[in-house]
Structure formats: structure tokens, C-alpha cells
Amino acid sequence: MPIQARKLGQLFTSTLTLSACTFGGGFVIIPLMKRQFVDRLGYLPEEEMLNLAAIAQSAPGAVAVNASILLGYRVAGIAGTLAAIAGTILPPMVILSIISLCYDAFRSNLIVAAVLKGMQAGVAAVIADVVLQMGWQVLRSKSLLSIGIMVGAFLATYWLGINVVWIILASGFLGAARAYVRYRRERREQP
Amino acid sequence: MSYAALFWSFCQIGLFSIGGGYAALPLIQAQTVQLHSWLTLEQFTDLITIAEMTPGPIAINAATFVGMQLASVPGAIVATLGCILPSCVIVSLLALFYYKHQNSPGIQGILSGLRPAVVALIASAGVTILVGALFGENGFVWNIQAMDFIALGLFAAALLVLRRFKPNAIYVMLGTGVVGGILYLIAGLGG
User: Is B162 in contact with A91 (Cβ distance < 8 A)?
Assistant: First the structure.
């Protein structure tokens, strides 16, 4: 099964490099995964990637680990999950192990600090690129509810600092309510 | 300290940190500083600094750091496995449920509400990183002189390259790391 082996290899190396370049944790890894698995490798459509991101965010634990579990499972089943988890947790484990042995030298190293500062701007640009693309998709849907959820969720999390759990619950509820209203309307129109 | 206690502590951190990223910090502090005295408060603060400077989810970084301090590499592995075990179980169940019921109207409705919220969460993470890159740790201020023009230039150049040539995001991040590192070192020497 060379195809399966190639998929496992791609899963492992992709999650390994993404995890090694993702500072700060949390949602930062999602746009990087989207670029790699949706745009470059074409393993799944953008909409499904967003669904998986929503599930990863709703479950307990680190978003990066949860998203790798889902992506790995989607691409290559249980073996894919294991390959993706290994790729995601190896870089922080190795780097932290080395740093915890020589923390003082690392902390005061000027070159390390300068490179990290430069990479921060690059990560911000990658996220901006993905947000522009996906935000445009939501705007183009011309659905007032979707646009409202996007703007409202941004204000709630960025300015008001509301816990992400509430934002997820509220937007899921609004989506379900919209589906229910549509369902009722369709049933009334065709008795 | 027993391996079982270490494993169980990080299991709880993995299980109860919903929302990822900084949501895990108070839990890590409660388990490692207050409950078990594995770290001093100063070591815990150091840990946050390291976690911010290095790639990977904060909970994984913390697990490796604490495990290394207590029992070297075996400790790091035990703590990390404990940390990701709850995610593996819960997310796998969610994945099975999602792929079985993804076409049901109710699930479709909920996910249609979650997708725009996920775009907003990614945008919020991006703005936080961008503000950090442009203005440093103290956050946004209405003062053009407080802005880091090297970071602004790197961000604009990286975004242009990404939108124009669609390269692999990792090369862009590494590129800004190298170019930024050189520029910051020159600026640091000049100032």
C-alpha cells in the first residue's frame, strides 16, 4: 500500500514542520493546516477543514493536537491519527527538553531573539492571507446571519475577551436555529 | 513524585482546558505549583516565557518542561502522554460521530453557524500576533513612533509574496525569520 505509506509520510512531515513553526499555540495552526492540507495537498475541501477546526476547538485539550487527530483520521484513518499526533508533539517536546537543560543561555541569546521576532511577522502575514481569503468567502455568501456571526464572534473574542466556549455554543445554536426555521418553512410550503 | 501522579495531573490539565492556549494556564498553575509544588512560582513564570518563545501548544510545552524537571526524558514523555490522552479519546469519538452524521440537517445547521465563528477566531489570533509583532508586549498604542517598522515591512512583504505567488507558508515564515533576524541585529547594533 504505497499510497497509504505516502499519505502517512506527508501527514507526519506536514504536521512536524507546521508544529515547529507555530508560536503561541491555539488557533494559529489552523490557517497553516488549511494552506497545507486544503490548498497544497488537496486532501479535503475548505468547508470540511473549517468543520474540523470547529470540532477541534469545541473539544478539550490543545487545538493543534485535536486538529491533527481529526486531519489524520480523515486522511488515513487511525494510523493517520497516530502519524499526525507524533508530528505535532515531537517539535515542542524536543525543543522544550533541550531548552529546559540550558534555559539561561537560550533566554539571553540575541540571535535567537531576533530570528523569533522576525518569524512573528511572517506568521501574522500567513494568518492575514488565510483570513482575507476565508472572510471573503463568508461575505460572498451574502448570508446576513453568517456575516453577523463572523463579525460578532470577532468582536466578542477580541474586544470583550469572552471565553471561546460561549462563542462556539452561541454560533452553533444560531446555525441550528436557522436550519430549523428553514425546515419548518419547507414543510409548510409542501403539505 | 510518582509517574502515576505526574500522568494523572496532566490528564486533568488536558481534560479541563477547553478553548486551548492560555485557557490551560490557570489549570497548569493549580496542578504544578499549588497542588504538587513541582515548580516554584518563578519557575512557572519562566515556563510561560519559554512557551511564548517556542513553538507548540502551551500544555505540551508545560508537560515536557515539568516532566524534564522532575524525571528527565521519561518524565517528559509520561507527562505529555497524559496531557494528550483525554484529547485522543474525546476527539476520536467526535470524529466518528461527525463522519457518521455529517449529512444530517441538524449537524449541517450547527456547523454552518460554527464556520463563520471559526474564521473570526482565526482573525482574532492573527490580530493578536500582528499587534504583538508591531507594538511589542504592551499592546496597541496610538503612537506611530511606538511601531516596529521592521516588523511592518516584513509583514507587508510576506503578505504580498503569499497572495501573489502562493508559496509554501513555511518558507515565508523561515524567510521572515532570517531576514528579520539580520535586520534586528543590524538595528540593535546601530541603536
Answer: no
